[in-house]
Give the backbone structure.
Amino acid sequence: MSKVKTLGQFIIEKQADFPYAKGEFSRLLRDIGIAAKIVNREVNKAGLADILGETGDSNVQGEQVKKLDVFANEQFIAALTVGGEVCALASEENEEIIVVDNEQSKNAKYVVAFDPLDGSSNIDANVSVGTIFSVYRRTSLSGPGTLEDFMQRGTEQVAAGYIIYGSSTMLVYTTGKGVNGFTLDPSIGEFCLSHPNIKIPKSGKTYSINEGYYVHFPDGVKKFIKWCQEEDKASNRPYSSRYIGSAVADVHRNLLYGGVFIYPTTSQAPKGKLRVLYECNPMAFIVEQAGGKATDGFKRIMEIDTKALHQRTPIFIGSSEIVERAEEFMAKYAIAAR
Ligand code: AHG
Ligand code: MN
Ligand code: MN
C-alpha cells in the first residue's frame, strides 16, 4: 500500500474538522483541483503554437484560439458552475460577477473569487504562473448570488489557495487550520500531499519588489529597500533580491524560504496594483495561516473593507519580522511626509 495521500483523500479526511459540513465544501475543493489539472495540461503545452495568439485568431483547425488566461477562466467557471456548490463567481477576467443560476445551485452556500491566471505576461517565456482562489460563505439567503455576497472582509474567507504551474505544479490551500501543499504527480494525475503544515520562517533574506519603479515608490518603501541592501551580519543583510513578476510564484518561494513580497502604491498606481478579492486576501489568508503577515503597509490586508469587485490595495506580505520592519519604515516616513 503506497503512503501517498492524494488531495481527494486529504479533503475527505479533513471534512471531519467541520462538524456541520455536508460535503459541499469538499466537493468545491475537489472541483477546483479538477480545473487546476485541466489548466495545467494547457499551460504545459503553451509552447505549442496553437494555444498562443490573441483571442479571436483561429488556429489551423479553424478553431478559435484562446489566450491561456481566457482558457483558464473558462475552465474554472465551468468546474465551479456544474458542481452546484457555488451561487456566484468573481473573476479578474470579468467586469461583473458571474451569477450561477441553475437548478443544482439553488441552495448553493458559497461564492468564489479567483484570478484564473496570475503572472500571465510570463507565460510565453516558460516562467511560472498561477491561479489564486478565495471562498466565502454567501451572505444572501437564497437564490442566485449577488455582488453583496463578495463585499466581505478577508477575515470571512472559509478557504483560500493557489495553484502554481512551475517546474512542478502545486496546489497550496488553507481552510483556516494551517496550510498544506500538494504536488501534481503527472504519472497518476493526482495532487499528492508533499508539504504538510507549511510554516513560513519568521525572517529570511529575500525581498521581492519591482525595483524598476523605485522613483515612484513612497519614501517608506525606498528607505526599506536601502535597509535591505545594507551590510549587517547579525540580520543576514544585505538581502537577496528576487522578483519573478508572478505574485503567486514570488509569494510561494518566500512562503517556503522566508522573505517579503511588496507591491506598494506608486505614483502611477496610487492604490497599488494587486486586487483585494482574488489576489491579496487569499494570499494573506495563506501566509497568516503559515505564521506570516500581510498588510497594506499600515493595516492588515484581511481587515480591508471590500467595496468593489476589482478593488486594489498595496501589499506587504511574508515573514512576520521583515513585514514588521517594512511597516516601521512606512509609519516613520508617513509621519515625516505630513
Ligand atoms: P495578472 O497576470 O493576473 O494580471 O497579475 C500580474 C501581477 C502579479 O502577479 C505580479 O506580481 C505583478 O502583476 C507584476 O506587476 P509589475 O510588472 O508591475 O511588476
Ligand atoms: Mn494576478
Ligand atoms: Mn490574472
